[in-house]
Fold this sequence. Notes:
Layout: H1 8-20, H2 23-30, H3 34-48, E1 53-55, E2 60-62, H4 64-87, E3 93-99, H5 101-118, E4 122-128, E5 142-147, E6 154-161, E7 164-167, H6 170-175, H7 196-204, H8 221-229, E8 235-238, H9 243-248, E9 264-270, H10 277-291
Parallel strand pairs: 3-4, 3-5
Antiparallel strand pairs: 1-2, 5-9, 6-9, 7-8
Helix pairs in contact: 1-2, 1-3, 1-4, 2-3
Protein name: LysR family transcriptional regulator
Domain HTH lysR-type: 6-63
Family: Belongs to the LysR transcriptional regulatory family.
Amino acid sequence: MSTALPPLAAIRVFEAVARHLSFTRAAAELGMTQAAVSYQIKLLEERFGGPLFLRKPRQIELSAAGQRLAPAITDAFALMAEAYAAARGGIEGVLTVCAKVSFATSWLARHIGAFQLAHPALAVRIDATDRAIDFTREETDLAIFFGTGDWPGLQAHRLLAGDYTPMLSRDLVARLGPHYTPADLLRIPLLDPGDYWWREWFKAAGVNYEMPKLVYNLSSQAVINAAAKAGQGAAILSTALYDDDLAAGRLIQPFDLVMPSDRAFHLVYPETRRNQPKIRAFRDWILAELASG
């Protein structure tokens, strides 16, 4: 069985179709007709010896073989493009970072300017989102996940701990009185009261807390943080994300009790992309920035 590579043109067409899951959109991107795209895929599948796509009435899907092949092909093209840019004298292009909304609006928004100044030819695009990211289907270079750091196929670097504690506005602290205790928090509104972090924190503080049966959810720490600063209630938040609000007095941490978490914010990217110049540049920058305090 020959191990020779198929024609580069066919591989390029496969990468575009796999990324878009559409012959039409791939043809528009490549400046080809849809018939030409279909022909290149047909040639590639004949060379491969099996289907790379599953044709359905109104859509296509990658076959099992196509799913194995697509990420490596996409990474290979990205690596070639970045190697070319680096050989011309610098890292350039677009770097897309998908980050949890809370991380993007707090830490990353306050620091990304330093990275942009260090790499002026690299345009940074930040997608603040809490949805799941699929590196095989999306044009995403890196992401910020919150979890234990165990994501198969992804390289993960721990960034910030997920330790948490209550925070509230100065006006709400005044409402608690001069000698408040953890139990006094139950006298004011709790933001996102169904969050299990509240249950765990109150338990550690020796307070009996029954989570309400009907609760509202504010969707992200970023929204909860904004509501807390507006005096709408007490929030339970990650201390590492909102240390600037505490330092500036926009929020008050009323108790020393901080709960440790087995989850943390991580920088993640596919293991196959670890040597891409723009990924190395961002990884090295963010780890150094956090290490410097």
